[in-house]
Write a structure and sequence with these properties.
The chain is mostly helical. It has helices at 15-23, 28-40, 42-62, 73-85. The chain has one domain.
């Protein structure tokens, strides 16, 4: 709730908080308030811009065949089998830190 002492959007904006915004982990009210801060506070805008750049760079590497050697088929099979055998991940929210 805005003005609440435990409200993460009221305090300093951390990279973790901006990453939570990008991942869609914030409720609509908190996300809107954080987006407003990104439009009005240069430091928050710079953090958001930097995180956006990292996401684009990682995405570009994902489609760049020259960025890593081919993975052997047996390794891919083993990874696939392990993922299929694993229980589904529990979606958990990180606790807020001040």
């Amino acid at each position: 709730m805005p003005g609440d002492a435990d409200d993460p959007v009221e305090g300093p904006v951390t990279v973790d908080l901006v990453a939570d915004l990008q991942a869609g982990l914030l409720d609509d009210t908190a996300a809107a308030r954080l987006r407003h801060r990104a439009r009005t506070e240069p430091d928050v805008a710079a953090t958001l811009t930097a995180l956006d750049r990292v996401r684009r760079d990682v995405a570009a590497l994902g489609v760049d065949a020259a960025s890593a050697p081919d993975v052997p088929a047996d390794v891919m099979d083993a990874v696939g089998a392990a993922l299929r055998a694993a229980p589904p991940p529990a979606r958990r929210r990180r606790p807020w830190r001040r």
